[in-house]
Amino acid sequence: MIAEHSLVVLDCEPPHEKLHRGDVGTVVHVYKDARGFEVEFVDGGGRTVALITVGANDVRPIEAGELLHARRTA
Asked: Could you tell me the pTM of the whole model?
C-alpha cells in the first residue's frame, strides 16, 4: 500500500515534459481506494518541478537497494 509522504518511482511514460520513467517523487495525496495519487517531483533545491496525478499502475514504491541519481531538467 502506498501512503501519503511515500517515495515512489514513475513506472510509466509521464504526462509531463520534464519527467522521465524512473524519476522519484513524493505522494502528496492518495485518492479513494488508492486508485490514483498526486505526486510531487522536486529538484535538488526543493523547487517543485511537477505535480501530477497518476494511476495506481503508473508508480511503484521505491525499494531498498535502488540508487537515486541526479540529472538536469532543462
From this structure: 0.92
Query: Which residue is listed with cell 514504491?
Result: 61
Q: How many residues make up the chain in this entry?
A: 74
pLDDT for residue 74 is more than 80: no
> Rounded to an integer, what distance in angstroms lies between the CA atom of residue 3 and that of residue 67?
21
Question: Which pLDDT value is given to residue 1?
Answer: 87
Provide, rounded to the nearest whole percent, the portion of the chain with pLDDT above 70.
100
Q: What is the CATH class of 7-61?
A: mainly beta
* Domains in the chain: boundaries: 7-61
64 phi/psi in degrees, rounded to 5: -55, 140
State how far the Cα of 58 lies from the Cα of 54, in Å rounded to an integer. Answer: 6
| Contact in structure between 37 and 56 (CB atoms under 8 Å) | yes
In the chain, the amino acid numbered 40 is: E
